[in-house]
Write the structure tokens for this entry.
Amino acid sequence: MLAQAPQLTRAHVSIAIAAGYLDEPPALPGLAHLLEHVLTTAPLEASSNTSLLTWLAQHQGSLNAHTDDYVTDVHFSIPANKLEAAALTVARQLARPPLPLSTIRAEVAAIDAEWNARQNSAQMQRLDALAALADPQHVGAGCRHGNAQTLGSDTALLLKALTTFHRAYYHGGRVNIAIISPWEIVDMTRLTQHMAARFSPSPPNAPSLAIASRWSRQLSAKVASTSNTVELLWPLPSAIARHQLIALSGLADAVQQGYFVEQFPDSITDYRATLAPSGATDAFGLLLSGTATQEQVKALAAALSERLAIFFTPLPGTTPNDHDTIWQPPADTVQLAPAWFAHARRQTLARRFATPPSEHQPAPSPFSADNVRWLIGNAPTSASPRAVDASPTPFPNVQCWCGQYAVDEDFGALADNAWAACFVPGAMIVPSPLIAQRLALQGIVFKQENSPHGSWVIVMGSQANHAMVALLEKATLAAPNAHEGLLAQQLVQRLTPLPATPALWVSHDTEAAVVCNTLANLASRIEKHTVQASLADLPSSTAIMRTLSLPGTPSQRLLLALAEQHHSAAFFQQARDDHHLGYVAAVRRGDGAPCSLGYVVQTSNAGQVSNVGEISKEAVSTGGKLIKEIEEKRIEEKLIAITDALWKTSNGVLQAHLPTLTPPETPLAALILQWQSLLAGTRQPLHRLGQQSLHSQALGDLLTQINSVGRWQTHWLDSAGHYQFNESTIEELGKIDIVGG
């Protein structure tokens, strides 16, 4: 599957294998997940010290992998001029991987740590609920993530099982390659042929691509949740024509764009339609947010089944030729790569479902009231709302920007478009129900981002200012959500500064004053809230991040972009594999003025403490607090040692790894990057600073600034919500020596 996009500077590649959790041997749940891990972290055949992850990072690329029910994919992004070398390297590793015992042992530990970190997350709770809807005899009713218990400790047995699983599934009959790049189609075709040639042909006894139905007669299950949701699932036939799947995908897009918006009761505030949602990829899904009783859900499921069935008409005849269709990302796409990778996974899944045209019999419509299943997530009943102070509150000052700020240089289409964006600190903007879908019917794109530190919305399209006024007039403010996701992700959110007052950015001054007043009116109703941290990360774990902050001059921002790219692979290797500091180990950057760089790890407090030394039995018996503190101190000291060593890099090495400044790949991305820059205190997004000349002397001067104006901090956040930080002075750490600087 190939697509050409001349504006790209990076290529996005997916190698997807039609095999996943539900293809595993029942005795080894998590085997497919383990193989995915080993493929990306095992040493390359040509280098005993380099994995796919580190190789891509060393070449200014990024790589990740994903295991789902029926598909496993390894996907990466790379500068376009390095596409061929990267594509052949990844294909070679996936086709004929080394499977060293040491890597297998390390990745079992990593998967177990991931399991512990995520086992009470919303994602894992949803998978448990889906398992409850499965036939008890089906592999889908068990653990699909894997952990140390399900995979066992017999590494030799795992090696044999991984080899067998790889031979059965990682061959030409199940490989799907997808590339989007600025290359000509003929050149990408040649490259994909070379990539495919790395894989063995299908073995004579290769397992069938058929999908066995896994749904039991049980119709509903409950999901422990922090919000009220209902997920309706219509299981698909085990064999369906490719063009019917394409029609279902189009139906999901149409529903997402506002069709059926009038079908929902007032208690439904949002919805998302998806063909093959993760964890239930053999179903059509509709996730509803809001409140509804079980009887209302049944009635709604019956009504929606009837409406959806009207749109799904089995198409007779042969499969149409859809290979020439030009792929278009959804209008609200911010990052092109995830949209492309999701599209590639759907195409791979379609290959598993689809029957050959000669064997195809039109499948019955999956949309019937007696076929639907649902997952109900009920949040705990909240306390009565806090009374709002009736005394008048003065309107806050609103920081306002008006104009294009050169975003039309990123996308010419933005020169004739309109948009409006607003930000409220310390609160969450709650739009009126189904706002995204209602705006989509008007041709307006809506995007919202919430964090515990503030909330922003952006609308793009004709009459954007008018749409923003209407949106804000009907919106309310709520206490910001507690942090969600892994603790390390929560810490990383602190890297980018946000303004302390409401902010507005409009492309045109028509009605700008009205928008500003409406935003001030909404922001005047902010209450002071104490955000309660989520406990979803239990069992107990801790994230620790060491950050470097600089004032944020253009050169300093480029330096941190360079460091993020250059340090990522080495930090991951040292923190995760060499020193075993935790499952998560990553370098992330917050751009703006000031600019920041964070080195973050996350570890389970249940893990063993290394080199405890003289700790007495009495001290240990008083509880785990002392051990926890000693373990955190050990991790902090390792973080300091690793990061100091990373910065002791010669100018010549850094000069050879100047960052590739990636421009935005969609119009909405260009707007959001500019908006985030304005909020972070600078008017120029990093990619528009230009490739400044960082010759050796200038680079040395920049590195020296770290000792004079750089500020180091260490941050801690545990799963009980306790956050603390300390400021590390240069005297405490010792000055960082710059080799050759």
